[in-house]
Design goal:
four-stranded mixed sheet, alpha+beta
Length: about 375
Amino acid sequence: MPYLFTSESVSEGHPDKVCDQISDAVLDELIRQDPQSHVGVECLATTGLVVVAGEVTTKGYADVQGIVRKTLEEIGYTKPEYFFDSRGSGVLVSIHEQSPDIAKGVREDNLDEIGAGDQGIMFGYACDETPALMPLPIQLANRLAQRLSEVRKNGRVPYLRPDAKTQITVEYSDDHKPQRVTTVVIAQQHDEKDTWGKITPKRLQADLLQQAIKPVLGKYFTPRTKVVVNGAGPWLLGGPAADTGLTGRKIIVDTYGGMAPHGGGCFSGKDPTKVDRSASYMARYIAKNIVAAGLARRCQVQLGYVIGQNEPVSLWVDTFGTGRLENDKLLELIKKNFRLKPGHIIQDLDLRRPIYRQTAAYGHFGRENFPWEKTDKAQELKKEAGV
C-alpha cells in the first residue's frame, strides 16, 4: 500500500554540526601534515565555550584554538548577540596521545596488516530514487538545509542566522517509488528585525518558499504540499547558546535519514583507520555500484570488524527482493571486486587526504565529489553478472 516516509537534516550552524565540523577540521589539519595520523577528536559547544578533547598520535601539529575560531567564522557565528561567536567564545583543549593498547593493533608498516581501529558494524545503502542513488527524503532534506545556508551567506535572505533544521515527508507508491513531497518543515533561526522592519512568520515563510523550498524540491513540490516554517513562532536564540552541541550526535543525518540502518559509531573526528568511518564509506561504495550496475533497485551492505584484525568478520548484502541475482552470487561479486581490509579500503578510496571537514555537514553520502560515491565498478559488475 502507499505510505509516507520522513527524514530530517540540519544546517552547518546546528550545534551538533558545529562540533562535527570542528572535529573534522582538526583531523584535516593533522592528516594534511602527517597522512598516517591517528586521530579521535571530540567536541562540545555551549554558550560562549568550545571544548575539544580526544586522542591523537601524529607527527603534525594543529593550532586547535585557531581552527575552532576559523571554523566558527566560516559557519557564520560572527556576532556577539548570538551569545556564541568566533572571537568571544572560550576554547578549552584537552588532547593526549592515543592508547598504546589500541595503537599496537593498527600496524602501519604494511597495508595488508593494518588492523581495524575498533570493533563494530557498518552499513551502506543505495537505491534508484535519485540520480545520486540516495533515498529521496534525506537527499532533499540535506539539499534544503544546504540551500538555507547558501541564501543566508549570499545575501538573498540576509536576516537568517546560522542554526536551522529541515524535515521532508515523501509519499511513496505501493511499489516504493516516490510520488511527491507531502510536508516540508523548517526551523530557521533569524534576526528580530532588519531595515524593512520586524521579521514576521509570514515574511519568513514567503522568502524561504521562493528562495529555498521550491528551487530544491522542484517537481516534488505540488499545490498540495504543506509548508510549516517555525511552527513554534519566532526563533532568535539558537546555535550552541540555546542547545549544547556534541560531535557524532547526528549520524542518522550523516547517513540515510532512517531509510536504512547505520552503525553505532559516528564518523567525524576519526581518521580512516577507524572502520566506523572508512568501512561505512566502503559499504556505500559497494551498494552504490551494485545499483548503478542495474543489479538491484535497492541494496544494503553490512560489514563487521574486530579491533586489531584486518579481515571483516562478516559481509552481508540484501536487495529487498529487487535484485537480478541471488544474494550469494552478489556476495561472490563483492568479494571479487572490492577489497575489504582496512588498509586496502584506505588505499582504494584514497582516504589519507584532508577531505573530511566538507563531509561534516549535509550528509556523507549523495555528493559526487567524494571517492566513495564513484560508480567506476558498475560496468565490470554488470559484465561479470551477465545480465
